[in-house]
Amino acid sequence: QVQLVESGGGLVQAGGSLRLSCAASGRTFSNLILGWFRQAPGKEREFVASFAGSGGSTLYADSVKGRFTISRDFAKSTAYLQMSSLKPEDAAVYYCAAAVYCSGDGCSDRHRYGYWGQGTQVTVSS
User: What is the pLDDT of residues 49-71, one digit of tens each?
Assistant: First the structure.
């Protein structure tokens, strides 16, 4: 089992920045793929970014490329999502997720992820 706890959400003005954190426990952190997804009201949950294990392969949704950065601190078993130049359309509940295995673009498929956090709300005011 893997437990994931997100934090860092909040209210920010458009153009501002936020950093989300995801603390993981229960399984060897370096063996997991960590992903961030988001879900806005009335919309499906969508992929944001992923970070494979110790190899460091990252993947981003086109909508966030160049603005968001995913990273991991293996010593702290924590993943981060640094969000910059936020737009109102970035507002959503952001979820951290963990997968045992995925490869390439497959890491954007939410069905690959078997473990999910409770989510953290990000609100962007225009």
Answer: 999 876 778 999 999 999 999 99
Q: What is the mean pLDDT of the chain?
A: 94
On whether the CB atoms of residues 125 and 12 are closer than 8 A, the answer is: yes
Q: Mean pLDDT across the stretch 97-106?
A: 92
Token pair belonging to 112: 């690959």
DSSP string, 67-122: TEEEEEETTTTEEEEEE-S--GGG-EEEEEEEES---GGGGG-GGG--EE---EEE
- pLDDT tens digits, one per residue of 13-51: 999 999 999 999 987 888 889 999 999 999 999 999 999
20: amino acid identity, one letter: L
Tell me how crowded residue 48 is: count the other CB atoms within 10 A of its CB: 24
Q: Is 95 exposed, middle or buried, given 0-12, 13-18 or 19+ CB atoms closer than 10 A?
A: buried
